[in-house]
Amino acid sequence: MTALTFEDPLFRTFAIAATIMIIKMAGQAWLTVWRMTKAKGGFRSPEDAKRSPLNPEPSEGQLAPNEYVERSRRMHLNDCENIPPFLAVAFLFVLAGPPLWVAQVVLYGYVVTRLLHAAAYLTAQLHDVRATMWTPGSLAILGMAVYVLTQAI
Length: 153
What we know:
Four Helix Bundle (Hemerythrin (Met), subunit A)
């Protein structure tokens, strides 16, 4: 096994794909905060609707669901359900030593499908469209897991 360095194209592929997904996930959290600030609502905790420097004019209803905020929150939850398993299995996949071109197709393909899924979700596309974008990424995770398992056994 070679050292995990950026000189190794397999590890570099993982590092790029993983970092993009981490930025996407962290960015989604910030998008949710931005939407809450813009809507002045969609808050979740009772203390969030109290007067503060960031909420100088609290109002009734700030704790009520706000679809503008909730859409972003659902997108973040979807990231929390899908990206961590990708990060874990993709790392193990790289350790299992697949051919570089296979890793590039699978890892970068996953990134593309997650970004397309996010675009579909953000623009309120039908579930069918979102599912079409989600499915290849889910299959990539399962495929990598099977590969890792077959190499480890």
